[in-house]
Write a structure and sequence with these properties.
single chain; 124 residues; Arc Repressor Mutant, subunit A; three-stranded antiparallel β-sheet; two-stranded antiparallel sheet; 15% strand; globular
């Protein structure tokens, strides 16, 4: 990943932020990294499998994290992902996602913003 693709100043780009938080597996990864800033891919795989109730195989989860979710989070500047060592580290920009993560995680349904910017909640 090159430096010029990362946001600066710890402020996430809104499109990158909402893209990152749109997927449940990425939200699980973000929560795990907010709790402890550095994790191994193996640890993140275990966290996702536990969150999903073990329905998916570890291999399937690992492949989706390594080839889809971690690169997307890295491209958006939320994590630094070192594939050869299997290490994932949250960036200062990741910390700025916490209030938004709470919003989309509240209540178990689909949270969204209305046209005037007020958060609402739609039950699934």
């Amino acid at each position: 990943m090159t430096e010029e693709r990362r946001p600066t100043g710890g402020t996430p780009d809104p499109d990158s932020l909402f893209d990152a938080l749109r997927d449940d597996r990425r939200r699980v990864v973000v929560r795990a990294l907010l709790e402890r800033g550095e994790r191994s891919v193996e640890d993140l795989v275990n966290t996702v499998v536990a969150h999903e109730g073990g329905d998916d195989t570890r291999r399937s989860v690992a492949l989706s994290l390594v080839h889809r979710h971690l690169p997307r989070l890295a491209d958006a500047g939320f994590v630094e992902y070192d594939g050869p060592t299997g290490t994932v580290v949250g960036t200062p920009t990741l910390a700025a996602t916490e209030p938004h993560l709470r919003l989309v995680s509240a209540g178990g349904g689909t949270s969204r913003l209305t046209a005037d910017g007020d958060p609402t909640h739609r039950p699934d």
